[in-house]
Amino acid sequence: MSAVLGAERPQVVSHVQQALSYTVFDCKWVPRSARLLCLGSAARGTGVLQLYELHGARLELLREIEKPKPIKCGTFGATSLQQRYLATGDFDGNLNIWNLEAPEIPVYSVKGHKEIINSIDGVGGLGIGEGAPEIVTGSRDGTVKVWDPRQNDTPVASMEPVQGESKRDCWTVAFGNAYNQEERVVCAGYDNGDIKLFDLKTMSLQWETNIKNGVCSVEFDRKDINMNKLVATSLEGKFHVFDMRTQHPTKGFASVSEKAQKSTIWQVRHLPQNRDIFMTSGGSGSLHLWKYEYPAQRSKKDSEGSEMGVAGSLSLLQNVTLSTQPISSLDWSPDKKGLCVCGSFDQTVRVLIVTKLNKI
Amino acid sequence: MTHPYREGSTFSGLLQSSTVDTKQISSVSIPPFLFEAILYAPIDDTNSTAKIGNGNIFFTLYKKEPALWDSLTLANADKEKLQYLRENAVLKAQEKAKEETEAKKITKQEHKKYALEATMKLEEAERKRIEALKEKERQKVAKELELWKNQQKDSDKYKSIQKKEELHQEIEPLEERKNEKMNKTRIPNEGSSKTRLKSTRGHGSCSIFSQNLKEEQLPAPRVAATIKVNFTPRVFPTALRESRVAEEEEWLHKQAEARRIINSDLSELEDLKEEEKNPDWLKDKGNKMFAMGDYLGAVNAYNLAVRLNNKLPLLYLNRAACHLKLRNLHKAIEDSSKALELLTPPVPDNENARVKAHVRRGTAFCQLELYTEGLQDYEAALKIDPRNKILEKDAEKIRHLIQGTMQSS
With A15 labelled, which of A93, A148, A164, A223 sits at a CA distance of 20 to 30 A? Predict the structure, then answer.
């Protein structure tokens, strides 16, 4: 841990460290509880789901569930607070929704993709946002599909490569702009540096750009408001913050970029309680805590009179190196400000507490 | 004894003078004057002083041995003794000076050490203080977490109790109504259960069923649609990295050029059929012949292809394989080297080709018994593809061979 105490900078305190016997690909807090979920792949090639509860200075294993295929990602985003069903994507392209009280048979199951589902996101659940609960999955087969748990077998939206075009791996997906029942966008990042924004209301491509490095993770600062900011992280230690409020007809969205770590930035996660603070996790096992500051004027007119966005600035609040292996997954607790869990490729899951976030 | 010295001599002049009170000689030299007195008996030179000032020099000398001296100076001092005493004096003075510097050095070192230790202690203290602060922070945060967690538990419990109560409340009136219905009419069981459900729907305010209601308020699933996507073109199947772009461009450029260059050797080529003028077709032909065991034929095909286009690395690579089979080891080495030359810059795209080139060249070297060169190539191949078990085994074998030959020779 670095940084000078005594200043008002937030500190990242490592609260609990738990060694696992499998590779953990994703870790998520169970909403409205002190329980967390780890998803991954056991050495045998099967999938593992472990449910832990925070007890003082350690994690107590409540439940371990084994599944035939390794699990890559999961989300609670599309489920109600009472049900708290987990949606997972596995290495075989299957999308499953599980009731953790009765995990033998999934509540919903579909072979959504031909190859591994790299990323999953959910919206419309947990009492956040409006509209139908939906799940989006992005896969190595180059497609992004949106699913409604009430509709079996076929997706409600599918973003596929044009006939004959060679596919690129989709590495990350995120929902956004879900501020009323009709509006919704999906943002997808691909390994060739493409970022595409799909508007689900008009079923069209709203915007695309290329950030010159494979896109590892995209996230809107909040899913349930008018699109405000989008952070996209990539290989080679770079990430971009786009101001999504003003779209210029040719230039798209304004952005500011930062080169933080020498290695891949695997994940970005915004603090649920403050949308201008986010944490990036890196391939060198480090975590960086950032704050975005808005510019004086968020938009200005260009020479032809069309509105153009103005990007703000970033400041690094804290950084800490926890491991020598990449930290591949990160999740903030939606209930306790500053509590987060991260999983890394050294088969360890760590619970961290970030202090002094109130003073920012 | 008074001694006049130059009027106007300043303090610096005094510093330049040297006063030596060694055990038996007292001398003061203020150029151009020199005063020397050989005393009767030794004096204690550390405590004695000589003060120069005001046109006088005051000597304060302490006798080493308290005794009465016959006279201040030695009366019959012969030249030799004088000389001897003088030299001694000088030597002693030098020694003393040396000792003093030594002593000074030692004290300086000790002071330094002390200072260092003191700073270290201070830094330790600072570090401990920071650690303590951090610990406190950690504990505070852990306590808050516990508190929050307990709150969570309590609220969960409370909610589940609430649920149970409401469920209970639900069931009671239902039970009553069911009994009533049973008494009133003879409806089959399914019918009564249906009515039961219907009547509860009518209430519509219970927690269990509120979910169903909320679902009804949700919009219907979206109408399925597809959006077609175009990707930014990229030749390589690997992910895009900015730092590799320059290399990749170079490789692509080379490949593109290679395809375009066609060496023209006009007269002989006129006899060839159209397809025989295409290096790729010839390469395929060559590959087929190799697969069937016709190595000479394959070499011919590759030779012609190379004459048409000498920039395609795969031609040389495959011809090297043929030469290996034909035991034309030197030619195999030449061709593998040429292939490797053309396979620059090294990108993940041409990894396989490079591994093969190294392996073929390595094999040729080994068959020529040039084991060290062969091992170099195998190690280069392993560097590109470290997970290849066959390569590892072969490299091990070569190492053993080298050690064997070294031992025997």
Answer: A223
Other C-beta atoms within 10 Å of B403: how many? 11
Gap between the Cα atoms of A174 and A156, Å rounded? 16
Here the ipTM equals 0.81
Alpha-carbon distance values, B20 to A216, B27, B87, B328 (Å): 85, 5, 12, 95
Strands A144-147 and A157-161: antiparallel
DSSP state of B54: T
Beta strands B33-38 and A117-123 are unpaired
Instruction: For B148, name the nearest residue in chain A, comparing CA atoms only.
Output: A336
For A151, the closest chain B residue by CA position comes to B221
Interface check B400 vs A, CB under 8 A: no
* CA gap B40, B68 in Å, rounded: 10
Q: What kind of fold does domain A11-355 have according to CATH?
A: Methylamine Dehydrogenase; Chain H (2.130.10)
Q: What is the mean pLDDT of each run of 10 residues along chain A (360 residues)?
A: 55 90 94 91 92 88 92 92 91 93 91 94 86 92 92 90 86 92 92 93 92 94 92 93 91 90 91 93 93 91 86 92 93 91 94 87
Cβ neighbours of A30 in B, within 8 Å: none
Residue pair B279/B286 in contact (Cβ under 8 Å)? The answer is: no
Residues in chain B with CB shorter than 8 Å from the CB of A7 are none
Residue B211 touches chain A, beta carbons under 8 Å: yes
Q: How far, in Å, CA of B20 to CA of B315, rounded?
A: 96
The residue of chain A nearest to residue B222, with distances taken between CA atoms, is A156
Give residue limits of the domains in chain A.
Answer: 11-355
SS3 B335: helix
Q: Are A295 and A313 in contact (CB under 8 A)?
A: yes
Taking the CA of residue B232 and the nearest CA in chain A, the distance in Å comes to 7
Whether the CB-CB separation of A233 and A217 falls below 8 Å is answered with: yes
Nearest to B241 among A11, A133, A214 (CB): A214
- The tens digit of pLDDT for each residue in B132-159 reads 888 888 888 888 888 887 887 777 777 7
Do the chains contact at A158 and B134, CB–CB below 8 Å?
A: no
pTM of model > 0.80: no
Distances from the Cα of A115 to the Cα of A138, A160, A186, B232, B239, angstroms:
10, 14, 20, 21, 17
A134 contacts in B (CB within 8 Å)?
A: 222
